[in-house]
UniProtKB/TrEMBL annotation, chain A:
The gene is lepA. Its EC number is 3.6.5.n1. GO terms for cellular component: plasma membrane. It comes from Propioniferax innocua. Keywords: Cell membrane, GTP-binding, Hydrolase, Membrane, Nucleotide-binding, Protein biosynthesis. The lineage of its organism: Bacteria, Bacillati, Actinomycetota, Actinomycetes, Propionibacteriales. This is Elongation factor 4.
Automatic annotation (TrEMBL), chain B:
Residues 24-265 form the Radical SAM core domain. Keywords: 4Fe-4S, Chaperone, Cytoplasm, Heme, Iron, Iron-sulfur, Metal-binding, S-adenosyl-L-methionine. It comes from the Bacteria. Pfam families: Radical_SAM. This is Heme chaperone HemW. PROSITE patterns: RADICAL_SAM. GO terms for molecular function: 4 iron, 4 sulfur cluster binding; coproporphyrinogen oxidase activity; metal ion binding. InterPro entries: Aldolase_TIM, Coproporphyrinogen-III_oxidase, Elp3/MiaA/NifB-like_rSAM, HemW-like, rSAM, rSAM_sf. The lineage of its organism: Bacteria, Bacillati, Actinomycetota, Actinomycetes, Propionibacteriales. Residues 1-20 are annotated as: Disordered. Its main location: cytoplasm. Gene3D superfamilies: Aldolase class I. GO terms for cellular component: cytoplasm. It comes from Propioniferax innocua. Belongs to the anaerobic coproporphyrinogen-III oxidase family. HemW subfamily.
């Protein structure tokens, strides 16, 4: 460093470069970030650990980054001037499109990082389009050029075709070996424009992330657009009108470092003492309470759950623990919604709203892992708007709320724009899958000789039900999928109930397209026949739309349940078996008079094939 | 005797019993079980504690076995309080008739000497049809046996083959006839149903054969595939289907109908007799919480709320006794509630039934539902219907708190 690095709050916006990295899981974003931390000298070699910025264990294991951070790095440019690079980390999955868009809005440039052995993936492409729409300068980069299977020429051509640049403009690096990373950083200085803002105007800063910390409360990450934010200042959240005092303001480099203020173009964090991330929402605009701005920054959205599922503790006594766990998760997850739900089959639980399937999976996994809860989750469903002939409207987030009285005039279901990228050889199976899932094709383009981009409009409900697994299995894992909200559409939907010995089992009710109702009914009844042990009486299993039965199976009555031989040496064993069986009975849920093992619920609600019924 | 012993607590090496059991047993009835762990060959379905000659060295030869058994009789006499003379003795196995009549007689003599015999003592031995002829039966009768239980299993050669049984069909009928001629008052024929691939007609043939033999006692068991047996391996390899529970239920119902029509009443789930006098009194003792000492490797005993069981291998069992120690592997001292639960699960199985006073109030309140479902008859005592016998374990689970 030839010149001292300017302190935050006094940095000329002209030397600031705000950028993010757009990449698919496993394409090396974290490794590239690690390398930059080392090259700029802000992390000593001895402190270096892999995936330095990914803090949460769950992220490290799954190789995905849910929460973004902004890291301030000094760099001496080729012109010997000192620059400040702010690297803003972006979430990498389909469920977090809105959060990605806010991270992008905090930047002027984006590195498009693509694995030189695999090419661009659907989610990366979707995020790239978001970045282009946000007017970001794109620096295309191929990573992993050291791999034997790397095909940089092929994928450079593919990228050039997508973003309309020259193949030679695509940089080539190996984040692992460090090759080309220094050049890349200099290109950021050269290519990415500096931030522009009005230092004299009332302060406006956009929240691009908000993280709960056990010790500090909520840590809010901001990008200052106009004016400045200082220590001890009273600030105003423009969407909610709430005011808070700034208890701490700082930058990440790469550990949190207190500063006096953040000025135009800078990124950093604020701590105000709020306890829930809902009070500090991503996309909101922060201004000064005593000199507020008149207009919010554009782009704020309230996160709406797209997918709902019931979560029930396997042991009913764990219900209070589940509530406490959800309360804790919500501190850090503004998109998580839940309300208590009672199921006749599963007992007390919660109806939980998620942004999408990955969000659902992550929440479930954290509940089980971090809070040690055993859960049954019902099959995920989307939100339906049901309009009755008398004009009454129902917003249905749970199949059990589907109106059973009165005539339904119309049902609207959420739709998505889906983009699938895959090798061209799989076009057939992909189209077949999408058509089978009520999709309408919107386009098909070759990205290169042997890779295609297929676009479909699909009901979200079809994506939610096992679509991704099917896509993966039909394409040997080569296809990638992205989807985005595309409004609603009217559909011919019906509610299918499953009746066990005449009693409807609410956990198994589903809203499906009329053409699929029979298929669903037969499959679910068949699955349950395999999963539910024989009882002392015959148990009919019926699938019904309203009062009309569309499928039927029967569990025959158990005729023999006795140990044939019971002499002197058998008695202790026999009594212990009885104790074990009685213990097992406690894990049964009663549906009317039918005893259903917990495992049957878990298995029936999973979307895969049923396992063979266990022999006694 | 099942292959896997239950878990239990350690028992003292001197064989002493808990003082409360000793006090309770004083002056009570006593039975004896003698386990003879020898077989000529091992049958494919059998997981009992038994050994062929090739599997055992000389340490566990029959003379060594008899010596150890006599030592155990001495030990039992030391640790038991004074009790009534023996009312029943049962020799099981294995194949008790692998011992020669003189060896069997020496065991009976020792038991008589130590414990005394009641006037109407019942002394049963199990017998495989292929190991006894008229001469052996005469000798057994002379040694003091009064009852014989013949392991017939099936009257159909194809089914006997599946079970690895070697006797010629019809042989068991000869044995039953010879036993009568030798002076055995009571003869039982024992059947197995539900052998994989056995047809309903084949089963009907077997049941008809025992009826035609005119015996006054029949046992019929559903075949269970025990882990570790040759049969289990054949089922796992797909050579034979797993026995089907519906098929076994159908066969049970058929047997019960045929035997009842022939004048034999079920007095326990798997046992039928022409009259209460023909019941196996030894087994009744098991089901009514009686006291018995089980002699021999792996044998189980019950004395006034303490259950204990011997080391399983003949050599280790004999080794302990040779060293002047108890051969007990482990024991369970039952508390009052456990004994009550055992009463429910055992006494419901038999014709005398379960005294409703054994049940708690909430348990009694569940009886009407079981009656309405056609599983239980609520008379002087609670007894099971035919359907109830097939679902006895479920009935006990439904009944108990």
């Amino acid at each position: 460093m030839n010149q001292p690095v300017p302190a935050a709050g006094t940095t000329d916006p002209a030397i600031i470069r705000n950028f993010c990295i757009i990449a698919h899981i496993d394409h090396g974003k974290s490794t590239l970030a690690d390398r930059m931390l080392q090259l700029t000298g802000i992390v000593e070699a001895r402190d270096m650990r892999a995936q330095y910025l990914d803090r949460m264990d769950i992220e490290r294991e799954r190789g995905i980054t849910i929460k973004s951070q902004a890291v301030r790095m000094p760099l001496t440019g080729l012109d010997d001037e000192t620059y400040v690079l702010n690297m803003i980390d972006t979430p990498g999955h389909v469920d977090f499109t809105y959060e990605v868009s806010r991270s992008l809005a905090a930047c002027e440039g984006a590195i498009l990082l693509v694995d030189a052995a695999q090419g661009i993936e659907a989610q990366t492409l979707a995020n790239l389009y978001l970045a282009i729409e946000a007017d970001l300068h794109i620096i295309p980069v191929l990573n992993k050029i050291d791999l034997p299977g790397a095909q940089p020429e092929k994928y450079a051509a593919e990228i050039a075709g997508i973003i309309g640049c020259d193949e030679d403009d695509v940089l080539r690096v190996s984040a692992k070996t460090g090759e080309g990373v220094e050049d890349l950083m200099q290109e950021i200085v050269i290519q990415v424009p500096p931030p522009v803002g009005d230092a004299e105007a009332p302060a406006r800063a956009m929240i691009f992330d908000s993280v709960y910390d056990t010790y500090r409360g909520v840590v809010t990450y901001v990008r200052v657009v106009d004016g400045e934010l200082s220590h001890r200042e009273k600030i105003l959240m423009m969407s909610t009108g709430a005011t808070h005092e700034v208890l701490e303001v700082g930058v990440i480099s790469p550990e949190p470092k207190r500063v006096d203020r953040l000025a135009v173009g800078e990124t950093g964090y604020l701590i105000t003492g709020v306890k829930e991330v809902r009070q500090s929402r991503v996309g909101d605009t922060i201004t000064a309470a005593n000199k507020p701005a008149t207009e919010m920054l554009a782009g704020y959205q309230h996160p709406n759950p797209m997918v709902y599922s019931g979560l029930f503790p396997i042991d009913g006594n764990d219900f209070p623990d589940l509530r406490e766990a959800l309360d804790k998760l919500q501190l850090n997850d503004a998109a998580l919604t839940y309300e208590p739900e009672t199921s006749t089959a599963l007992g007390f639980g919660f109806r939980v709203g998620f942004l999408g399937l990955l969000h659902m999976e992550i929440v479930r996994e954290r509940l089980e892992r971090e809070f040690d809860l055993d859960l049954i989750s019902t099959a995920p469903n989307v939100v339906y708007d049901v309009v009755m002939e008398d004009g009454l409207e129902h917003h249905v987030t749970n199949p059990s709320e589907y109106p059973t009285e009165g005539k339904v005039a119309e049902v609207q279901e959420p739709m998505v724009k889906a983009t699938i990228l895959a090798p061209a050889e799989f076009i057939g199976p992909i189209i077949e899958l999408c058509e089978n899932r009520r999709g309408i094709q919107q386009g098909l383009d070759y990205l290169s000789e042997d890779r295609v981009e297929i676009r479909y409009r699909l009901p979200l409900a079809e994506i939610v039900f096992d679509f991704f697994d099917q896509l993966k299995s039909k394409t040997k894992g080569y296809a990638s999928l992205d989807y985005d909200d595309d409004g609603v559409a009217a559909s011919d939907l019906v509610k299918v109930d499953i009746l066990l010995h005449g009693d409807a089992v609410d956990a198994f009710s589903a809203i499906v397209h009329r053409d699929k109702a029979y298929q669903y009914g037969v499959a679910m009844a068949g699955k349950l026949r395999e999963l539910i042990p024989r009882q002392q009486f015959e148990v009919p299993i019926q699938a019904a739309i309203g009062s009309r039965v569309i499928a039927r199976e029967t569990i025959r009555a158990m005729r023999k349940d006795v140990l044939s031989k019971c002499y002197g040496g058998d008695i202790s064993r026999k009594r212990k078996l009885l104790e074990k069986q009685k213990e097992g009975k406690k894990r049964m849920k009663m549906v009317g008079r039918v005893e259903v093992p917990q495992e049957a619920f878990v298995a029936a609600l999973s979307t895969g094939e049923p396992k063979e019924k266990e022999k006694k | 005797m099942p292959s896997t012993p239950p878990d239990g607590e350690d028992a003292p090496r001197d064989g002493s019993l808990p003082p409360e059991s000793v006090a309770e047993a004083r002056g009570q009835h006593l039975s004896a079980y003698v386990h003879v762990p020898f077989c000529r060959t091992r049958c494919g379905y059998c997981d009992f504690n038994t050994y062929t000659a090739g599997e055992l060295g000389t340490a566990a030869s029959t003379p060594a076995y008899v010596d150890a058994l006599l030592a155990e009789v001495g030990l039992a006499a030391q640790v038991l309080p004074p009790m009534q003379p023996l009312r029943t003795i049962f020799f099981g196995g294995g194949t008790p008739t692998m011992l020669d009549p003189a060896q069997l007689a020496s065991i009976l003599d020792a038991l008589r000497e130590r414990f005394g015999f009641a006037d109407d003592i019942e002394v049963t031995t199990e017998a495989n049809p292929e190991t006894v002829g008229p001469a052996e039966l005469e000798a057994l009768r002379a040694a003091g046996f009064t009852r014989i239980s013949i392991g017939m299993q099936s009257a159909v050669p194809r089914v006997l083959d599946l079970l690895d049984r070697q006797h010629r069909p019809g042989r068991e009928l000869d044995v039953a006839r010879w036993a009568g001629e030798a002076g055995f008052e009571r003869v039982s024929l024992d059947l197995i149903h539900g052998t994989p691939t056995e047809t309903l007609e084949e089963w009907r043939t077997s049941v008809q054969t025992v009826i035609d033999a005119g015996v006054r006692h029949v046992s019929a068991y559903a075949l269970t595939v025990e882990p570790g047996t040759q049969l289990a391996r054949r089922v796992r390899r797909g050579e034979l289907p797993m026995p089907d529970e519906d098929d076994q239920a159908t066969k049970y119902e058929l047997a019960d109908e045929m035997l009842t029509a022939a004048g034999l009443e079920a007095y326990e789930i798997s046992n039928w007799a022409a009259s209460p006098d023909d019941w196996c009194r030894h087994n009744i003792a098991y089901w009514q919480g009686g006291n018995w000492w089980g002699f021999g490797p792996g044998a189980h005993s019950h004395i006034a709320g303490t259950r204990f069981w011997n080391l399983r291998h003949p050599a280790t069992w004999a080794g302990r006794l040779g060293a002047g120690e108890s051969p007990v592997q482990a024991r369970e001292v039952l508390d009052a509630e456990t004994r009550r639960i055992e009463r429910v699960l055992l006494e419901l199985r038999i014709a005398p039934g379960l005294d409703a006073d054994v049940l708690t109030e909430s348990e009694r309140s569940r009886v009407p539902d079981l009656v309405a479902r056609g599983l239980v008859v609520d008379g002087d005592t609670l007894t099971l219907t035919r359907r109830g016998r097939l679902l006895a374990d479920a009935v006990v689970r439904d009944l108990l708190d």
